[in-house]
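Narrative of accomplishments. A recurring question from our advisory board has been how the design workflow behaves on a single, concrete structure rather than in aggregate. To address it, we present the structure tokens for one chain from the evaluation set, followed by the sequence designed for it. No filtering or post-editing was applied between the two.
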């Protein structure tokens, strides 16, 4: 599967431990934490944080898969999990994490 061109799928099941172990190394800067995939991105100023947040929002809208975002002056934390998979990690989360890393605004 090409994570960079993949589309999220409705009803994606939760990944098991083997699935997480397979995909997580392909997501630089991301960790399995708090039941989801989480990454922190650092920036020089709040304007860059907001540009990144808006880029993530555009991606989330296009994929119809929405993360939890926490923003501060110079940092954004992104966390993906799949509600329909019991709040666990699915391939939709892996796809979106990979695509967030490619955003021009991203600096994991």
């Amino acid at each position: 599967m090409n994570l960079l061109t993949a589309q999220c799928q409705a009803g994606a099941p939760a990944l098991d431990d083997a699935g997480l172990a397979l995909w997580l190394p392909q997501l630089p800067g991301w960790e399995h934490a708090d039941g989801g995939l989480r990454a922190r991105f650092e920036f020089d100023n709040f304007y860059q944080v907001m540009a990144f947040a808006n880029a993530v929002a555009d991606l989330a809208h296009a994929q119809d898969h929405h993360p939890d975002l926490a923003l501060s002056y110079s940092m954004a934390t992104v966390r993906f999990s799949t509600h329909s998979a019991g709040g666990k990690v699915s391939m939709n989360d892996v796809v979106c994490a990979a695509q967030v890393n490619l955003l021009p605004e991203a600096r994991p």
